[in-house]
Amino acid sequence: MSLDVPAALLERAEQGDIDDAEFVECVRTSLPYAWEVVSRVAGELQAGAEEYADNRVPPPDEVARGQLLRALASDAIRGGLERHFGVKLAFQNCHRVAAFPLSAVGGETYTRYISPRAQLLNQSPELRNC
Q: Any alpha helices (H) in the chain, and if so which ranges?
């Protein structure tokens, strides 16, 4: 299960759409490590990182790794985080998450970061099973 959904939020979801703020709060409380990584790279970008900001530090344990994978593998969660922080997220492996300005999507730096070449060059034996 990806998220710990409070009963009241689940009831509202069963009745119809919920707003992004409620969803993002559920993500924040359910996946605190993923939230910390994404909020940090988004904050670094907004504080003036050159073209993008990315996380190169592996998760401290498997629980944290699982949170990051669940957050970025879900279109809904990833999209909610992107809308909340106003960034485009890119994900290369079990921990390498980058935040780009929305205006960078389709540009040279973003395209290079998400390329198959970049994915191959970012591999290492110690990350084989991440």
A: 7-15, 20-30, 32-46, 62-73, 75-85, 108-113, 116-121
